[in-house]
Amino acid sequence: AQSVTQLDSHVSVSEGTPVLLRCNYSSSYSPSLFWYVQHPNKGLQLLLKYTSAATLVKGINGFEAEFKKSETSFHLTKPSAHMSDAAEYFCVVSDHGSSNTGKLIFGQGTTLQVKP
Amino acid sequence: NAGVTQTPKFRILKIGQSMTLQCAQDMNHNYMYWYRQDPGMGLKLIYYSVGAGITDKGEVPNGYNVSRSTTEYFPLRLELAAPSQTSVYFCASSPDTYTEAFFGQGTRLTVV
Hints:
The complex is a heterodimer of chains A (116) and B (112).
Chain A (H helix, E strand, L loop, with lengths): L2 E4 L3 E5 L4 E3 L1 E4 L5 E7 L5 E7 L5 E3 L5 E5 L4 E6 L8 E8 L9 E3 L3 E6 L1
Parallel strand pairs in A: 2-12
Antiparallel strand pairs in A: 1-4, 3-9, 5-6, 5-10, 7-8, 8-9, 10-11, 10-12
Chain B lengths: L3 E4 L2 E4 L5 E7 L5 E7 L5 E9 L2 E4 L6 E3 L9 E3 L8 E8 L7 E2 L3 E5 L1
Parallel strand pairs in B: 2-11
Antiparallel strand pairs in B: 1-3, 3-8, 4-5, 4-9, 5-6, 7-8, 9-10, 9-11
């Protein structure tokens, strides 16, 4: 069965400094991977997705992530944090071609705090 | 474009009561999901469906039931509400496993 581990429950950065949110996944088959963002009391918004094309994926608002199969990782980065980036971030995995096809599993989330 | 619509937005239930959370999508998506979100716990998959007439358990199915008689609707049933079911519930849909899921705005349920 697939699973996702977000290695940090809370990350704090200063405005203008780089952001790194770490995600490791477990999947028996070729996965699709997603990052979602949730602002306080809001719904979920897709940041970016990996679906077996380019391993470096660019998303909205300057975020990007790199799929590394050898490390089973899909870390999210941004060169320069903005105050509006403060939110909860979720790494999500979806399996293909297994008995679990169709399951969309979320990590536990990382809270990003951006200090002025 | 309505997307994924959840009703109600808020509900307070008494212990032992039953209710159905409604979810409808107008995008003709095959895959539909129900999640619950507890503070600091991320989203946990309750049930999912890969098409009309096909449902399967997720990570936390106990205390819930679902049905999927049509492509559009995927209601979630709570039979005997318990305080542990106090949570925010999200419904989502997706055309396939390669495409991102589209989420409803959530239902905030409190069981007292």
